[in-house]
Specification:
Layout: E1 2-8, H1 13-22, E2 29-35, E3 56-65, H2 70-81, E4 89-95
Antiparallel strand pairs: 1-3, 1-4, 2-3
Helix pairs in contact: 1-2
Length: 112
């Protein structure tokens, strides 16, 4: 079992979500966040009249999935979140040790 965290441009969320539905991703969490990386985001103005903005708005997707689904999900996110400009985002994959469904009590792969 894996967890995929993807940080993408907010305006790409609907495109990525639609694509993930097409490959039958069963669920994901979405959070609006702010952050910065080693490169400044070209799509976001970092300077305004009164202040310098240090953080760029992003959307964080969190998807728990079976190991064999990881490559397809990553490919889907990469293809549909890509603009070719700085600030397109990052994808991180980590291993999940244990999963429990609160409603059914199922565990691990059955809980996904």
């Amino acid at each position: 079992m894996k967890e995929i965290k993807a940080y993408i441009q907010p305006f790409m969320l609907q495109k990525v979500t639609d694509a993930l539905h097409k490959i039958h991703v069963r669920g994901m969490s979405v959070n609006e966040i702010k952050g910065f990386g080693k490169e400044k985001d070209e799509a976001y103005p970092h300077h305004s009249k009164d202040y310098v903005t240090e953080f760029t708005p992003k959307v964080k997707l969190e998807i728990a999935c079976h190991d064999e689904e990881v490559a397809q999900i990553i490919k889907c996110i990469k293809e549909h979140a890509h603009t070719g400009r700085k600030g397109d985002g990052k994808i991180f994959v980590t291993t999940l040790e244990h999963v429990v469904s609160i409603r059914t009590g199922e565990t691990d792969t059955a809980a996904l």
